[in-house]
Automatic annotation (TrEMBL):
GO terms for molecular function: heme binding; iron ion binding; monooxygenase activity; oxidoreductase activity, acting on paired donors, with incorporation or reduction of molecular oxygen. Its main location: endoplasmic reticulum. GO terms for cellular component: endoplasmic reticulum membrane. Heme binds at residue 237. This is Cytochrome P450. The keyword Iron applies. The lineage of its organism: Eukaryota, Metazoa, Ecdysozoa, Arthropoda, Hexapoda. It comes from Chrysodeixis includens (Soybean looper).
Length: 296
């Protein structure tokens, strides 16, 4: 709201509005979560150091763990480099909490809306899950993720048309010469992820169509720089693989157990922290029946 109202650009004016007080309350909730996580982890580390133990499963052998939690890495860096302050670590944790949860939740929502109004696509996803898991209800393992080719294509197609973050801001650190103009150093630029994903020049005449099959060809579809759901270049999202693993896992469990029916062809959107539908997105969730029960 503030970004679209030039009269609220001034910090002095904005601080006097109800919106500022609401924003402070919301930020306090987020900070409480990150501070609680940090305090708990810091206490655990201190206790482990006192006891002379480590976090890995091979503590007897003294081997370093293969993977470390992001927060542990930051805490270790702060011990080696005092310039990395606790406030900076908290800011990174805040980013992970917001960026790693809100975006995944939005993508799951839009994906279920899309497959709910396109039975053919939902059936293909279900058939793929059946080929991987059969009739079992076992958990998803790492090896399963690489086999979910069509599921991955559906996720990418959803992200292309409905990026959870429809636009980002970037600061130019040097002059940038484009075909039509020159962007001078120090300019703040708005990058339109929504528009790039729907560009007919980048994706072809069927750019507006929801067609997961475009991601299954041997050659990548469109211009790679036109797919901006995870941003692009050096500032691209570091959690892409993590997000894709979560999305595939959730969808696998949902589609094996449930069937979705939606009305999502005429959605109207609004830009909040993430992209959100405000109308035309009704969805029904039903217990899935196998083909034998359907025939009966």
């Amino acid at each position: 709201m503030r970004g679209l109202n030039v009269f609220l650009y001034s910090d002095v004016v904005y601080s006097l509005t109800p919106a500022h007080r609401e924003m402070k309350r919301c930020v306090a909730i987020l900070h409480n979560v990150s501070e609680t996580v940090m305090k708990r982890r810091k206490l655990e580390r201190e206790n482990k150091m006192k006891c002379g133990t480590t976090d890995n499963n091979n503590s007897d052998s003294g081997e370093e763990p293969r993977f470390k939690a992001f927060l542990d890495i930051l805490m270790e860096l702060s011990e080696l480099d005092p310039s990395l302050t606790e406030q900076q670590i908290k800011s990174e944790v805040d980013t992970i909490i917001v960026g790693g949860q809100e975006t995944v939740a939005s993508t799951i929502f839009f994906t279920l809306l899309m497959v709910g109004c396109k039975p053919r696509i939902q059936n293909k996803m279900y058939d793929e899950m059946r080929s991987i898991f059969g009739d079992s209800k076992r958990p998803v393992c790492k090896e399963d993720l690489s086999r979910m080719k069509y599921c991955e294509a559906v996720i990418y197609e959803t992200l292309r048309l409905y990026p959870p973050v429809p636009g980002v801001m970037r600061y130019t650190d040097r002059d940038l010469q484009l075909k039509s103009c020159k962007v001078p150093k120090g300019t703040v630029c708005g990058i339109n992820s929504w528009g790039a994903g729907r560009s007919a020049r980048a994706w072809g005449p069927d750019a507006a169509l929801y067609r997961p099959e475009r991601w299954l060809s041997d050659t990548p579809p469109g211009n790679p720089a036109a797919f901006l759901a995870f941003s692009y270049g050096r500032r691209a999202c570091i959690g892409k693989k993590y997000a894709m693993a979560i999305l595939k896992t959730i969808l696998a469990h949902c589609l094996r157990e449930l069937e979705f029916v939606s009305q999502a062809d005429n959605m109207q959107m609004k830009i909040d922290i993430a992209l959100r539908p405000i109308s035309g997105h009704l969805i029904q969730v039903r217990q899935r029946m196998d083909n034998e029960m359907k025939k009966e």
